[in-house]
Amino acid sequence: MEQDALGGISDRPSRQMGQPHPLPVNPSTHKRNGELRSYNIVTKALSRTSVPEPFFATLPSEIHSSMYPDVLHQLLQGVLKHLISWLKQILGQKELDRCFQCQPHAHGIQHYKDGFPDFSRLTGKEVKDIFRVFPGAICASDALRSKGEDGLSVMKATVAMTDFYYFATFPVHSDHTLPLMRQALLLFHKNKNGFLNLGVRCDKGITEDGNQNPFCIPKLHFLTHYIWAIVEAGALPGFDTQMSERLHIAWAKNPFRSTSRRRETSTNEMALWVERQEAMQAFQSLVQWRRGTIPLSKLRTDQGF
C-alpha cells in the first residue's frame, strides 16, 4: 500500500516515476504455447497502454474543469447532425430536398438547386452555409405544418437549436447574450418531444436502464456546460478545433499522398515532407525580404526568425 497525494491509502502497486503500468498476471493473456507474450500484445489484450505513469497522476485535480466545448464536433458535426437525421426520418429525403430547393436566391447565401447535400462529406464551412437557410427551409415544409402541434414543436426546436449555435459562436458575450443562449436551449428541450411523437427512432441514445431515448446523447448534454465555459474561459471560438482543423489537409493529407503509403515508413516520410516544405517556405520568404517585397517584421512573425 502507498499513500496518495490527498493523504489516502492507494492499493495500486508501488512503482517508480516514468515506469510502465504493472500488469496483473493472467496466464491466458500473458502466455501462448508456454511462452511469454510481448508487452505490447498483453497491454492491447487488457485494453491498457504502454504509456509510462505521468508525473501528474497523483496530483489533486478536477478533470472536468479542463474540458471546454468544441463547436465544430459537438454542435456542427454533433447535435446538428442528429437534428438533421431526425428531420430526415420525419420528412423523408424527397421532402427535405424540396424544402432546400424552394429557397429563394440571395446574395451571399448558398442555393441548393440539387436539394440537401450529403452531410457526411461536408466541411465545416459548408455546414455553416447550410444552417444559414436551415430554419427557413424546415419551416417552409408543408408536410411538417400539416402534422399539427407536433410539427410546430419540431419547428420551434429546430429554430431554437440553430439560435443556440449562433449565440455560442459569438466572438464577444455580455450579460444579455448568455441568458439568450439559455433560453434557446430551454426552448429546444421544451419542444423536443415533438420528434418522438412523430416517430423518430435512434439507436445511439440508450439510458442507463437500457431504455431507448434519442436525447440521451453526451454531446447534447454538454450544451448545458457552454455558458459556464464562456464565463470561465471566454468566447468559444478561442478554443474551437476549427483553428487547427484547417491545417489537416495541408500538413496531414497532402504529405500522406506524397509518401509510399506503407504503414512502416509513411509516418517518417510525412515528417520529412513537412520539414522540407517548411524549409522551402522559409527560404522563399527570406528571398522576398532580400528583394524588399516583404518587411522584416512579417518575416520574423511568419517563419519564426
Number of domains: 3
Largest sheet data: 2 strands, antiparallel
Q: What letter string, H or E per element, gives the SSE order?
A: EEHEEHHHHHHHHHHHHHH
Average the pLDDT over all residues and give the rounded result.
80
Low-confidence stretches: 1-15, 301-305
The number of helices is 15
Oligomer: single chain
Trace the largest sheet across and list its strands: 1-2
Gyration radius from CA atoms, angstroms = 26 Å
Tell me the structural class.
mainly alpha
Give the tally of β-strands: 4
Helicity, as a percent range: 40-55%
Shape designation:
globular
Beta-strand proportion: under 5%
End-to-end separation in angstroms reads 52 Å
Features:
305 residues; mainly alpha; two-stranded antiparallel ribbon; two-stranded antiparallel sheet; disordered N terminus; Plavaka
